[in-house]
Amino acid sequence: MNWKDLYKNKLATAVEAVTHIKSGDRVVFGHACGEPKDTVDAMVKNYEQYKNVEIVHMVAMGKGEYTKPEMAPHFRHNAIFVGGCTRNAIAEGRGDYTPVFFHEVPKLFKKGLLPIDVAMVQVSKPDEHGYCSLGVSVDYTKSAIETAKFVIAEVNDQMPRTYGDTFVHVSELDIIVETSNPITELSPPKIGDVERAIGENCASLIEDGSTLQLGIGAIPDAVLLFLKDKKDLGIHSEMFSDGVLELFESGVINNSKKAIHKGKMIVTFLMGTKRLYDFVDNNPVVEMHPVDYVNDPVVVMKNSKMVSINSCIQVDFMGQVASESIGTVQFSGVGGQVDFVRGASMAEDGKSIIAMPATAAKGKVSRIAPFIDQGSAVTTSRNDVHYIVTEFGIAELKGKTLQQRARNLINIAHPDFRDQLIEDFEKRFKSKF
Ligand code: COA
Hints:
alpha/beta; Glutaconate Coenzyme A-transferase; 15 helices; about 25% helix; binds coenzyme A
């Protein structure tokens, strides 16, 4: 049968498609802005038909209605990253979190550690050979399709057609629901004075010819503001957002000095506005690959002058970095932080930067603390940490003793907290600051 006939035979409505989900199934959603909309809505509407369906998902950009208290007997959320719309469910016990490096998520599916019954994904329209692109989210979504027993795919005519290892053939999809939905957008963050100062400090560590990994949010975007005078930068990142476009258009990012994938921006998922999605559509300068390739530290390390920039919640005097929980509250997840911290530190002339405002909770708490809060998870270990950056400066920790680390960190803490931190230092190390 040719692919066009196959395609027609697989067409269904969203309501019909979700009847293939059975009680007790484990369902994986396409990631982040790739989360399908119509079929997830139809699944939630059909909730009375299901008991104990496990929803596995990472960055949640949808409505998260399956996590509402009244859905508890029908759906249970297993988060690989905790987001705004799923945080309460986990804090209140209606869901749980699975710690895993982002680059190892496909391995959980492939090795049967987290076998999938149903993958619900979103793809672009097929090309003339019957291949659909995974568009803005390739990450673990491709391996979810490859390993699930059943694949429900929304073919969205607004999904950009991205290049790289992003293609799935119509024959790999079990049910097709045609949709026309705008891709979920992430508005550009507000960049204040604190973020600008952090951005400027980070930018001072970035040399011409570096390859960058940037996380999500105001700090990465603030770093980009201070790179306008740099030359020959490249991108090898878990994700990027609109902030990168200006530097690409002005020629600062040209990927010309990259040691691998010269001339290309390498990424595993995208979150931004329609401007970004239009830019990546049919644009071979952006190559998207599965996360077990892009985030694999052994791949990341092949880039020379690799610089990773991520954020955190707390750093203790030893340089242990808590990035995903506030005490016992699981706030987010490890994501790709450690993948890139390790990849950058193994790369020739690589640097890993953890950048954060010196305080949290509207200035009431110092993020630099003698100890990690009880119950918090250490995300980046003291053995992996390299640079910590705040609006007050840069602390280099690699190769430094415990006391040197603590001194360097206290020097970039908010001045309001420095006296207390010095007292804590002297008590702890039995040594003058
Ligand atoms: N004590 C108490 N509260 C704290 C705190 C601390 N030490 N640190 C942060 N908070 C609070 C903040 O005040 C804020 O609450 P508010 O909005 O009510 O003020 C909230 O926690 C979120 O903190 P903030 O720093 O604003 O979060 P963010 O959106 O900038 O995200 C991380 C920061 C660290 C959570 C995020 O970068 C992350 O999840 N990192 C791990 C994953 C990663 O690095 N992935 C790789 C790249 S995508």
